[in-house]
Amino acid sequence: MTPILTAIFSGSGRKAISRQMSVNKFLNSLHEQINFSNQWYLSSIGVNPEHQKKGHGSILLRSMLSRFEKDKLSCFLDTQKKENIPLYEHFGFKIVKEAIIPGTDVRTYLMSTSR
Predict the structure, then answer these.
(1) In sequence order, what DSSP letters do the residues of 79-108 get, joined into one string?
(2) C-alpha separations of 88 from 20, 27, 40, 63, 74 in Å
(3) How many domains does the structure of the chain reveal?
(4) Which residue pairs, CB below 8 angstroms and at least 24 apart, start in 93-101?
(5) Torsion of CA 54, 81, 86, 25, to 10 degrees
(6) Per-residue pLDDT for the chain (115 aa), expressed as one digit of tens each?
(7) Which residue range forms the structural domain that includes residue 68?
(8) Residue 82's domain is classified under what CATH number?
(9) 63 Cβ contact partners less than 8 Å away, ≥ 6 residues apart
């Protein structure tokens, strides 16, 4: 489980839902601070750990990025896994903000193709 999911769902029921809502609110506030308007938000992309390091993540990214490029749009994403940053940088993303998610020890990295 990713660090953010562990932090959010380290409980059950209402507490987990409340934490998820708090995290979403925090991330949305960061997106507003950076003003990611007119950019696509590249949401969750995941590859089963047993299939990682085989190019599947790159295929998924290339597919979405080619769609955005065709429409002449840039995009942004969040990642909480520092080890994913080189992959995103390879595809032209740059870190535009780092923050610790309140109430956790999880660092999030906001990355964009337009900066």
Answers:
(1) ES-GGGHHHHHHTT-EEEEEEEPTTSS-EE
(2) 25, 19, 15, 14, 13
(3) 1
(4) 96/34, 97/30, 97/33, 97/34, 99/26, 99/30, 101/4, 101/7, 101/23, 101/26, 101/27
(5) 120
(6) 555 555 555 666 777 778 888 888 998 888 888 877 778 888 777 788 888 888 888 888 888 888 888 878 888 999 998 988 998 999 899 999 999 999 888 999 999 987 4
(7) 3-112
(8) 3.40.630.30
(9) none
CA distance linking residue 9 with residue 83, whole number of Å: 22
Token pair 């390091």: residue = 53
pTM, whole model, 2 decimals? 0.75
Burial class (CB in 10 A: 0-12, 13-18, 19+), 86: exposed
Nearest CA among 50, 14, 22, 17 for reference residue 106: 22
Question: What does the block give as tokens for 86?
Answer: 């080189």
Count of alpha carbons within 13 angstroms of residue 78, beta-carbon side: 23
